[in-house]
Specification:
With 284 residues, the protein is of the alpha+beta class. It has two domains: 141 residues, Sandwich (Jelly Rolls); 99 residues, Homeodomain-like (Arc Repressor Mutant, subunit A). It has ten helices and nine strands. The strands form two sheets. It has a five-stranded antiparallel β-sheet. It has a four-stranded antiparallel β-sheet with strand order 2-7-4-5, with no helix packed on it. Strand 4 and strand 5 form a beta hairpin. The C terminus is likely disordered. It comes from Rhizobium fabae.
Length: 284
């Protein structure tokens, strides 16, 4: 990874007032996490993993996850998350030498994290700390953190050949408010619209579905990690109408964005599967 192209990651505090379960969430970078309050239950391939307050863990990239976040009154649910480029995991593991890399990327919990590792995690998550360092030092700090997680049992599974769906998610994530169309995407991938549609169909998905889902995943992150108004979040993910945004959010996640943030209203149903209609109903 060339230093000039290295993205300096920034930690985020995820806060949630109401209990909710979010299905089919897809991260485009691996996440190192620490649950500060409440409980997190992450399920991948029908294998649930529980993280109670104080637990550290690793969430893989491009693996659909079901995440249930459970506040413990009177506190909100809170987790600190640090996205780290996959290449750094691979570089760190190569330097470790003998380490078993899981064949399937699954969530993993770190056990008995030493104080040195906990301090380093907090340092890397604090805004601006890594950005103030020379890039080579920032990378070294992150690789040390990855090594600590691995020594404590949280190892990132092997990468797979990127699907077209994954590449499309990455593209939309850069600017979710842009008026993306099938034509824009096809041009970006140097293929015809028909070819793009056909190749996505072979992955059992479609352009509008991925566009909508990527926008809603981004919206969920903004609800959980910022104090932006719902109207501002709607604009950030490509909706001019806050009411349309709220309806689409509830259709996708089974609860309103205000419940996620404040826990101020009952949940009618917890989570929904991503629809397979290929239609972006309102505008993941």
């Amino acid at each position: 990874m060339e230093d000039q192209n290295f993205p300096i990651p920034t930690g985020a505090l995820i806060r949630q007032g109401g209990r909710a379960c979010f299905r089919h969430l897809v991260n485009t970078s691996p996440l190192l996490i620490r649950v500060q309050s409440g409980t997190k239950i992450v399920t991948a391939i029908d294998k649930p993993l529980r993280f109670d307050a104080g637990a550290y863990g690793l969430l893989p990239d491009y693996q659909p996850l079901t995440m249930e976040n459970i506040p413990k009154a009177p506190q909100q649910y809170q987790t600190v998350a640090l996205p780290v480029p996959r290449q750094l995991f691979e570089d760190a593991y190569a330097r470790m030498g003998s380490i078993a890399i899981p064949s399937t990327p699954l969530p993993a919990r770190s056990s008995n994290m030493p104080d040195e590792a906990a301090v380093l995690f907090e340092y890397c998550c604090q805004p601006g700390n890594l950005a103030r360092l020379p890039v080579a030092i920032a990378r070294a700090r992150l690789m040390e953190l990855i090594t600590w997680f691995a020594l404590c049992g949280a190892v990132l599974g092997q990468s797979r050949s990127p699907r077209l769906e994954d590449r499309l998610r990455q593209m939309v994530e850069i600017d979710p408010a842009f008026g993306w169309t099938l034509r824009h995407a096809a041009r970006s991938f140097n293929m015809s619209e028909a070819t793009l549609r056909r190749r996505l169909a072979a992955e059992n998905t479609g352009f509008s579905e991925i566009l909508s889902d990527t926008r809603m995943n981004r919206a969920l992150g903004l609800v959980q990690t910022t104090t932006l108004s719902m109207a501002q979040i709607a604009l950030e993910v490509g909706y001019d109408s806050p009411s349309q945004f709220a309806a689409r959010f509830k259709e996708r996640f089974g609860t309103s964005p205000r419940h996620v943030r404040n826990g101020s209203e009952p949940v009618e149903r917890i989570g929904t599967e991503v629809e397979r209609s290929g239609a972006d109903v309102l505008s993941g």
